[in-house]
Specification:
By secondary structure, the chain is an alpha+beta fold. It folds into 2 domains: about 30 residues; about 110 residues, P-loop containing nucleotide triphosphate hydrolases (Rossmann fold). The chain has 5 helices and 6 strands. The protein has a 4-stranded antiparallel beta sheet with strand order 2-1-3-4, with helices on one face. It has a two-stranded parallel sheet with strand order 5-6. A hairpin with a 7-residue loop joins strand 1 and strand 2. The longest helix has 19 residues. It is elongated, with a radius of gyration of 24 Å. The model has no long low-confidence stretch (mean pLDDT about 85). Bound molecules: adenosine-5'-diphosphate and magnesium ion (MG). Adenosine-5'-diphosphate binds next to helix 3.
Length: about 160
């Protein structure tokens, strides 16, 4: 009788070990502090006024999930404040990646992305994103309204395919 109950209890040991190991992996993900952290209110600077000058200086960039494909090699771009610039190119040429780097969804491996002369890495991530209005590939929205990008943000970006 007692041998049977010991056997029954120990049959769960393997499952318990697997559960412990799974829980440890989940907590590691929950505790991880990302390099680009939009949750920290007080981290990074804010600018009193945003003029809106954008500059990419000698940017090298590769998506972490695709290390074999370099997207930018010493890429330079200046968009003066208050001007409109169209990035035109074949699908996959890197237009949306420019937007991703301005919004800091990724950081370049080398070079800098600057807003009004300030490296975007030094700015508060949430504040930065609040000053950018992006409409992404919403062709219907573009056709229905004369100006689909909200007027208030300092930087207005529109991304849609030509057809
Ligand atoms: N999150 C991502 N992870 C890995 N590769 C990506 C990612 N986003 C885009 N890419 C790749 O980066 C290249 C540039 O993409 P993208 O900037 O979206 O081009 P475009 O906007 O000009 O069509 C493409 O080869 C695309 O497959
Ligand atoms: Mg795109």
């Amino acid at each position: 009788m007692s041998a049977q109950s010991v056997g029954q209890n120990t049959s769960f040991l393997g499952d318990q070990a697997a559960a412990n190991s799974a829980a440890a992996r989940i907590f590691a993900v929950v505790d991880r502090r990302p390099d680009i952290d939009s949750s920290q209110e007080g981290k990074g600077e804010t600018l009193a006024k945003v003029e809106g000058r954008l500059e990419f200086r000698h940017v090298d960039f590769t998506y972490p999930s695709r290390p074999e494909a370099q997207i930018f090699h010493r890429f330079n771009l200046v968009v003066e404040a208050g001007t409109t610039v169209a990035l035109v190119g074949a699908s996959g040429s890197g237009k949306s990646t420019v937007v991703q780097l301005v919004e800091r969804y990724y950081d370049p491996q080398r070079g800098t992305v600057c807003l009004d002369g300030k490296d975007v890495k030094d700015l508060n991530v949430r504040w930065l994103r609040q000053h950018i209005g992006l409409v992404s590939q919403e062709v219907k929205a573009i056709r229905r309204t004369s100006c689909p990008v909200p007027k208030s943000p300092a930087l207005r970006m529109l991304s849609y395919p030509m057809s």
